[in-house]
């Protein structure tokens, strides 16, 4: 821009075009270009044309003297076209509403040559003795404009975009902290705000908490940025599920599934999105790519409606059903048809809840299992090795995860005698009558023939279904093997 401006104004073939009377007023240029044009004028310097004889002014018979350039070299300019003098700084920083005297040296030009020199020299009066005169203010503006270190735009450019963001963030937290303490009527300062103090007062402590929250937010944004960079231009699909928190706020958990540059299937948790409701219109705003949902009975209609709505607007958002989850839901639905199986799982949940109700009972269960393992090892009835004879605990079953039911059954069979021992201890040494009564009822249930029979029966049946379920959940799928497992499971 600088070179273009100089070429445009001062490197023309006809030097008369530089005549100050023929130049446009600075205020007539676009405001974003005015400072650059002023710099170009200042770099070129005052216009000092010299000719053999200048014309005489009619009233006084005097004319402009080229020797005046030496007396006022930095600001005096002369227009040959109109035989008038101008002031370069005042011309550059002229105001449209300026005084008549200032206007003479900026717009109309000065021609009263008889008033030059002497005690009442018009040029000296224009400069003025007052430090705040119009001319001196214009000259100071020229100096500031050319001094980049003091120019306000240069000062702003010293700060990077990140510096501006950081400073705004600091101010935002200072304002939030101040407003909160002011509204609560709390004291700002503490009695001791030194670095060694444990309590620096309300202001600093609250500011510390807010900053820590912002740090977590920044970390989460960096993690998301890393995930986006890892995906790159690859195709991906969005896996979502309901994630209601303890405050009953409806949230949508988002997981991105994609194939990385090495051909490995990756899944990355991307975040939680709050949704006001789980209607198809609300969910449609968040999902618009490849879509895949489970078939929970309480959500089936809404999911199907969402599938059709998205496919209508985006035909390439293919619908993929979660077959592994569908298998789990099918097993849950079928098990509820058989009364004995349904009752068995209800009793199993009750037993697990009673034994695992406290840390003390869990410790008793693990201690009993450790004694049993030590006894079996002493009899040389157990093999030893890395990863063998681990001490676990009873597993709780989930309503929609059928694989967790199998884990719950397997854990009870593995720790059956230890569970009975813990229940007997509760019956004998329970603190309350209710705990002793619940333990006695649970002991009668698990020692009954019907419960024991269904326990082992369901273990054998569910082991087959669990093998298929694990195969369907593998990240690297073998389609032919999965099809064989489906056929054999049927």
Rg to the nearest angstrom? Answer: 44 Å
Spatial order of strands in the largest sheet: 3-4-5
Largest sheet: 3 strands, antiparallel
Mean pLDDT: 76
Query: What is the helical fraction, as a range of percent?
Result: 40-55%
Question: What distance lies between the first and last C-alpha atoms, to the nearest angstrom?
Answer: 78 Å
> What structural category do the secondary elements indicate?
mainly alpha
Q: List SSEs in N-to-C order.
A: HHHEEHHHHHHHEEEHHHHHHHHHH
Please indicate the percent range of residues in DSSP E strands (runs of 2 or more): 5-15%
Q: Which blocks of ≥5 consecutive residues have pLDDT under 50?
A: 9-14, 96-100, 296-303
Number of domains: 4
What is the tally of helical segments?
20
Question: What is the tally of beta strands?
Answer: 5
Domain TTF-type: 60-158
InterPro entries: AtLOH3-like (IPR055298), DUF4371 (IPR025398), RNaseH-like_sf (IPR012337), Znf_TTF (IPR006580)
Protein name: TTF-type domain-containing protein
Pfam family, one: DUF4371
What's the SSE blueprint?
Blueprint: H1 2-10, H2 34-44, H3 68-71, E1 76-79, E2 84-87, H4 88-92, H5 100-108, H6 122-127, H7 134-146, H8 152-158, H9 161-184, H10 202-231, E3 236-242, E4 251-259, E5 265-274, H11 280-286, H12 300-313, H13 323-337, H14 339-355, H15 359-378, H16 402-414, H17 416-429, H18 433-446, H19 449-472, H20 479-489
Antiparallel strand pairs: 1-2, 3-4, 4-5
Helix pairs in contact: 1-2, 9-10, 11-12, 13-19, 14-18, 15-17, 16-19, 17-18, 19-20
